[in-house]
Amino acid sequence: MALEIKTKTKIDLEKLNQKIKRQITSILMAAGHLIEYDAKNLCPVDTGRLRASIHTEPVDWNMVKVGTNVVYARAVEYGTVPHWPPIEPLKKWAKRHGLPEQAAYAIQASIAKHGTQPQPFMTPAYMMNREKIKRLIRNEIRNLIKESKT
Fold it and tell me: Would 8 be classed as within a structural domain?
């Protein structure tokens, strides 16, 4: 013996689920853009390549990534241990800053001895927005729940 229980709902749960997922992605993208905006403002600028590369992208419906694909971003954010950097980029840097080419060799030697100092931009951008993002997500999720009840 068995009982069949079926709801007589006019709500398409799959469509509702997809709508909620899209809305959550939208909320997270808005949160990511807060971090992106401040990261771009905090980012040290030489050529502008690093700042221009900072972006927000969806990873999944419940996750976004704020970051950059520029190889040297990690070295800027966290600094480096002592190492011998290639000389050509340092020569170009010296030229852009009106320094003689020989300055590049002195900079190279300094980096070899001391490494580079961190110039954080992503972490502070996140920290500046952390509480605002928590409130944004909390309030928007509450709104989604209220809308789904009506």
Answer: no
35-62 burial: b if 16+ Cβ within 10 Å, else e: bbbbbbebbeeeeeebbeebebeeeebe
46, 88: one domain: no
The count of structural domains within the chain is 2
Structural domain containing residue 46: 16-79+118-145
Q: Is residue 10 part of a domain?
A: no
Say if CB 101 and CB 90 are below 8 A apart.
no
Report how far residue 108's alpha carbon sits from residue 26's, in angstroms, rounded to the nearest whole number: 45
Question: Which residues, 6+ apart, have CB-to-CB distance to 35 below 8 Å?
Answer: 56, 66, 122, 125, 126, 129, 133
pTM for the whole thing?
A: 0.82
Model confidence pLDDT, tens digit, residues 49-88: 999 999 999 998 889 999 999 999 999 999 999 999 999 9
Taking the C-alpha atoms of residue 111 and residue 91, their distance in angstroms, rounded to an integer, is: 14
Is 5 a member of any domain? no
Rounded Cα–Cα distance for residues 35 and 29 (Å): 10
Task: Give the C-alpha separation, 57 to 51, whole Å.
Answer: 16
